[in-house]
Task: structure prediction
Amino acid sequence: MTVIAIDGPAGSGKSTVARLLAARLGWLYLDTGAMYRAVAYLALRDGVALDDAASLTALTRNAHISFTPEGRVLAGETDVSEEIRRPSVSASVSEVSAHAAVRDILVEQQRRLAQDGDCVMEGRDIGTVVFPDAAVKVYLTADPAVRAERRRKELIAKGEHTSSAETLAAIEARDRFDAGRDVAPLRAAADAVVVDTTALSIDEVVAALSALVGDRDAVGR
Result:
């Protein structure tokens, strides 16, 4: 089992890049952020208070979150891939992911999922917590205004309209929350390669990461 860990803040391009890199390598792709989103969605659906650690922990333990071979997100046998991208979930996921017990459960599941084969795993604490010994660690970042515009375009494509100022405020608020939380804060691992995607296309980022993977003897490919 070989893991490529890709971390970074919202809008840095990590989900798209990780998915394309995994496809290029023929490896598994695991979006750990989708798991936290699934818990947030279930909590909102079931009326579980986001500050109720005990209830959120029980919900997470019983959620049975998994992925289909096509990358769809399942909670039990229910496909929640679309629901977890709703703005209400985006606004709630940081608070959910700040609970240590929730993270413990999901980190254990993430490590178990990775045992299915070589994988590209993306999130916010992959290189620092989930797989600190990953063969390759990458931290993607970009200017907040650029990240916000990327996110705004994603929302518009889904029929959800928001202003540039509102999207930037949401991005900056999440950055502060994720970087400032006590448990597994968002940060680059000491040995991660930091890639600024501000002026790069998706294809350029994927090419850079592919070259990085090829240069690392630890990957064994």
